[in-house]
Amino acid sequence: MEKVEIVEVGPRDGLQNIPGFVPTETKIALIHAIADSGVKRMEIGSFVSPKAIPQMQDMDLVVQGLRPMPNIVKMALVPNSKGARRAFSHGITDLEMVISMTDGHNNSNVGRPTSESLADLEYLLLEVDPDSKLNLRIGLATSFHCPFEGLTPETKTLSNIEKMLKFRNGLEFALADTTGMATPQAVKSLAQQAIKHFGNDATFIFHGHDTSGFGIANILAGLEAGLRSFDTAVAGLGGCPYAPGASGNIPSEDVVYLLHRMGMDTGIDLEKLMQASDIAASIPTAIEASHVRKMPRETALSLAKVA
């Protein structure tokens, strides 16, 4: 069976927008439950300013409370080289830095234009990590649409990818539908162009939100374009605090259910993933968006095993 990677972003992107503080022990339990489902890579949180993202103020405690998970790639989001140094101090070398493709969103997100974030990335790669010890993913926020500037030209995203690959080859780029406004045609086109022009020097993943209801359709468009890695969040939690109107991430269990019914291999146990989803959905004020969770569980699990 063809393999597809699901990267779980619930513990970071899924939780960051929940208004009430999620207790440290709940975050740890969620991460452990996701790991038990067979997910091999996940965002466990972010090393950001507590003032900017209060939900992540206990990141140090979360990392310290995790059991050993040697088979899991633990990723952490960092806003800048300062955050990267914090992550390094905890032994985390799989990092994600988000850089918006539009100045409007980058200013809202990290308080500076895109060009300054690119300069900080260059500093991180050439000065903080000259020996290439870290595995770095760049989240290309607003790759398709910006809440402040409208539709993002495809050429702008491709141009920024080219600039960043001059700093270092081998980066991973997340084509991010930050506001959930991308159409399947746009996802397929940008993914195809990115793979065509930079596929020998970089890897690509799709990060989507389901604001317009196109989330699953966009996953399928990404598959058709040649992508084989996708960000999702248990129960469809999430949203961007700096993108007004953006809804949650594409639900992990919906994507795994679909891929299994299509005969694809994710390596994930859907039943155990649903148990992790139960933890996420039980968090006070959390807004879930999963379709599979609304189905009779036995039916969903049996159908997903047919393939």
Notable features of this structure?
307 residues, alpha/beta, TIM Barrel, eight-stranded parallel sheet
What does this structure look like?
Helix 9 (215-225) links the parallel strand 9 (203-207) and strand 10. This protein is of the alpha/beta class and 307 residues long. The chain has helices spanning 10-14, 24-36, 59-65, 81-89, 103-110, 114-128, 154-165, 184-198, 215-225, 252-261, 270-281, 297-306; strands spanning 5-8, 41-46, 73-77, 94-100, 135-141, 145-146, 150-151, 172-176, 203-207, 229-232. It has one domain: Aldolase class I (TIM Barrel). Helix 2 (24-36) packs antiparallel against helix 11. 41% of the residues lie in helices and 15% in strands. It is globular, with a radius of gyration of 18 Å. The model has no long low-confidence stretch (mean pLDDT 94).
Protein topology:
Blueprint: E1 5-8, H1 10-14, H2 24-36, E2 41-46, H3 59-65, E3 73-77, H4 81-89, E4 94-100, H5 103-110, H6 114-128, E5 135-141, E6 145-146, E7 150-151, H7 154-165, E8 172-176, H8 184-198, E9 203-207, H9 215-225, E10 229-232, H10 252-261, H11 270-281, H12 297-306
Parallel strand pairs: 1-10, 2-3, 3-4, 4-5, 5-8, 8-9, 9-10
Antiparallel strand pairs: 6-7
Helix pairs in contact: 2-3, 2-11, 7-8, 8-9, 10-11, 10-12
